[in-house]
Amino acid sequence: MAERPIDLGWVRVFAAVGKMGSLSSAAGTLGLTQPAVSYQIRRLEEHLGVSLLQRQHRGVELTAEGRRLFDVTSRAVDDIDMLVRSFRSQSERPAIRLRTDYAFSSLWLIPRMHSFRLLYPEMDIQIVATQRMEHGPPDGDIAVVFGTRQEFGSNATLLLPERVVPICTQGFLDRNGPFFDPFEIASARLLHLDTRAPSPWFDWKSYLAELGINRDAAVGQGELSFNTYSLVVQAAIGEQGLAIGWMGLVDSLLSSRMLVTAGPMLEATDRGYWLLPPKAQSAETDRLAAWLISEAGIDALKAQDL
């Protein structure tokens, strides 16, 4: 069913009469009666004090004054209708909100969004990044959240299991390494991500504890802490120290050699970034979820069983 044109009063009526050259045809197009259209034109002529139409045996013809008014009104009606169609088109475009944290959005999601835009150029996406999400998304949203299966339940899909490794620049490693021994890592200048205790992911204390090292927070060559992981990574690129690198987030930096690994890798198989489906699914949320799973390198059939 076609969208009803916006009401423009006598302007639309006169433009339709001038375009069609017929009161009856204009009335049919506008959904009005012929007497109603005739009355509108008569009132307009009385108000302007000029004749706008010459009645012919078969229809009507514009007078010189009518032609001048028609040139203005027809352009105005066409421009307004075009603008209204664009407004309606924008309001009807499928839109979806994806909620996640700063690290995933800046290091994993944003570099890949161009490929999604190529696949689905008609979809609008709003990315909402927060420091840490505690609960699942409201209706209509998709979320990618860090945590454990126990937190998010059987409907969540593990996109990126937590695998971490110390990272730094080659220059920092050459000047301060190598870090073959965990004690050498513990005595290096470390870059920290601030978290509420206990940390929900590997921090330096838990990483070194897995290697049998109980590191005092005051040990080292000066500690630097940041409230977002993106800043931790930037500090590592700036050769400020050793950072914990989350595989999946820093892969491109490692492949480009902007950063290098500098110690053993550890893994927490039940912990990582999980895709939480919306409470109310749609074709758009299904497309986005499938794309996220594909980009994470997870087989679609396997994902259904997770």
Automatic annotation (TrEMBL):
**Pfam families per record:** HTH_1, LysR_substrate
Domain of life according to the entry: Bacteria
The reply to whether Transcription figures as a keyword in the UniProt entry is yes
Q: Which keywords belong to this entry?
A: DNA-binding, Transcription, Transcription regulation
Which GO terms are recorded in the biological process aspect for this UniProt protein?
A: DNA-templated transcription
Q: Has keyword Transcription?
A: yes
Outline the extent of the HTH lysR-type domain: 6-63
Q: Which GO terms describe its molecular function?
A: DNA-binding transcription factor activity; sequence-specific DNA binding
What residues form the membrane-spanning segments?
none
Q: Which SUPFAM superfamilies match?
A: Periplasmic binding protein-like II, Winged helix' DNA-binding domain
Q: Which family does it belong to?
A: Belongs to the LysR transcriptional regulatory family.
Q: What function is annotated for this protein? A: Transcriptional regulator of the ttuABCDE tartrate utilization operon.
The protein's name is HTH-type transcriptional regulator TtuA
Organism for this UniProt entry: Rhizobium mongolense subsp. loessense
